[in-house]
């Protein structure tokens, strides 16, 4: 399996190099397709090691247990049944958060926001695959599963994300621009006037408000305040970019 994956990655990396060269020759796009492929390959290899995933489970179980006061639960690993190719954890019964009633969603979405803020801004390690299938509900708690993809964040990035969250909520886009440069999400030579003159700053706030105006049950964020929505949108945005760039 590892040999087959390595061969696939080698071929894809050669293709990514060609795409990067062609894109930079014909457009102003400076995306590093090889770096993106390398990050994806690193995550793919990590997901093939179930002992490493088990250690991630144990770490998050301990750290989130201390920080979230029982509101977030991570299943316990059954180490006697776990190997590099097999992961066994306790069985947790419960529906996906997205399939729950509006009342449950209203209660647990802020818990989820706080949980991922704790990971991004305090722990410096975060669950990199928070799709709906990995967020369950059990006994009134938010349950996180599948820790195959986990990434680390340095202290400078943690501080920049904290200030970016504040600046986004307060609509201080000048300061937010500097935060994004610090996070290396914008290049050092990015045109401040061009970026701030575009529609993206207002679009982020409008998106948060639109989440609130959607029909019942259509989106989790309907049940959050605008500030919570902004935090949640920023978290998703940063998680996506960090997964690509870490």
From TrEMBL:
<feature type="transmembrane region" description="Helical">
    <location>
        <begin position="225"/>
        <end position="245"/>
    </location>
</feature>
<keyword id="KW-0812">Transmembrane</keyword>
<feature type="domain" description="ABC1 atypical kinase-like">
    <location>
        <begin position="2"/>
        <end position="176"/>
    </location>
</feature>
<protein>
    <recommendedName>
        <fullName>ABC1 atypical kinase-like domain-containing protein</fullName>
    </recommendedName>
</protein>
<keyword id="KW-0472">Membrane</keyword>
<dbReference type="InterPro" id="IPR011009">
    <property type="entry name" value="Kinase-like_dom_sf"/>
</dbReference>
<comment type="similarity">
    <text>Belongs to the protein kinase superfamily. ADCK protein kinase family.</text>
</comment>
<keyword id="KW-0732">Signal</keyword>
<dbReference type="InterPro" id="IPR004147">
    <property type="entry name" value="ABC1_dom"/>
</dbReference>
<feature type="signal peptide">
    <location>
        <begin position="1"/>
        <end position="17"/>
    </location>
</feature>
<dbReference type="Pfam" id="PF03109">
    <property type="entry name" value="ABC1"/>
</dbReference>
<keyword id="KW-1133">Transmembrane helix</keyword>
<dbReference type="InterPro" id="IPR050154">
    <property type="entry name" value="UbiB_kinase"/>
</dbReference>
């Amino acid at each position: 399996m590892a040999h087959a994956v390595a061969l696939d990655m080698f071929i894809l990396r050669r293709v990514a190099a060609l795409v990067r060269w062609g894109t930079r020759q014909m457009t102003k796009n400076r995306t590093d397709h090889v770096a993106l492929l390398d990050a994806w390959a690193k995550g793919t290899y990590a997901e093939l090691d179930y002992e490493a995933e088990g250690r991630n489970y144990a770490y998050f179980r301990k750290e989130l247990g201390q920080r979230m006061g029982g509101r977030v639960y991570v299943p316990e690993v059954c180490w006697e049944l776990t190997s590099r190719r097999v992961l066994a954890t306790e069985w947790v019964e419960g529906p996906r958060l997205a399939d729950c009633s509006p009342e449950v969603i209203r209660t647990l979405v802020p818990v989820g926001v706080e949980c991922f803020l704790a990971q991004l801004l305090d722990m410096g390690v975060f669950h990199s695959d928070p799709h709906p299938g990995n967020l369950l509900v059990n006994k009134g708690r938010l349950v996180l599963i599948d820790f195959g993809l986990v990434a680390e964040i340095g202290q400078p990035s943690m501080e920049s994300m904290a200030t970016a969250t504040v600046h986004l909520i307060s609509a201080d886009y000048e300061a937010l621009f500097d935060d994004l440069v610090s996070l290396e999400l914008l290049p050092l030579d990015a045109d401040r006037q061009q970026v701030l003159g575009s529609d993206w700053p207002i679009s982020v706030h409008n998106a948060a408000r639109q989440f609130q105006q959607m029909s019942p049950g259509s989106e989790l964020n309907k049940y959050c305040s605008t500030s919570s929505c902004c935090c949640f949108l920023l978290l998703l945005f940063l998680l996506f970019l960090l997964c690509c760039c870490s």
